[in-house]
């Protein structure tokens, strides 16, 4: 696979592209969670055995994968959305791909994905979310009960949004889940039933209810934590459903 991957810098961030041996003409943007990284010759999606398995399975289905370091723990900041959009445009120029892409987002990557769904509407075919964080305000409020984690998360979010830590609670411009309810892009969520960082009651269930109320339902697949890196084939099946129209 090493022959078919490349790393490049853009806007001070490292980015990666993986091209399959037999491309199907469709691209997929991956947006990682808080532990995600890309450097000049590696990434979490290559280094981590479970995530690498997902990457290998999706490449085997013919998808060209691309992703960015996105400033590390970005928590859905405007900066991360802009960088992801720029990456999309560069990949469209460099690779021979259909201009409507799929997205895979894990954890807090869903915060950026939701905003891309608003901003790149026509360019997105479908979105696969893995144990997503979708309501940042609710997550921050929940973290208050865990003092050590709250301090860490608060510092990360303040840094990502360029806001003084002591002003974060009063800050009004964090993404609000309600603003994404009008979206009709196909979404499927893969959610573990235990050992999750982001409580599904705060995130995926809330989003599921929002979309149902808007007559644009989504699919949620719950699975055991032991199976959390075995859903590459089912993500590919989901993507294929939305490739009839080029």
TrEMBL record:
InterPro entries listed in its UniProt record: AB_hydrolase_fold (IPR029058)
Gene3D superfamilies reported in the protein's UniProt record: alpha/beta hydrolase
Protein's name in the database: Alpha/beta hydrolase
Source organism: Sutcliffiella horikoshii
Record lineage: Bacteria, Bacillati, Bacillota, Bacilli, Bacillales
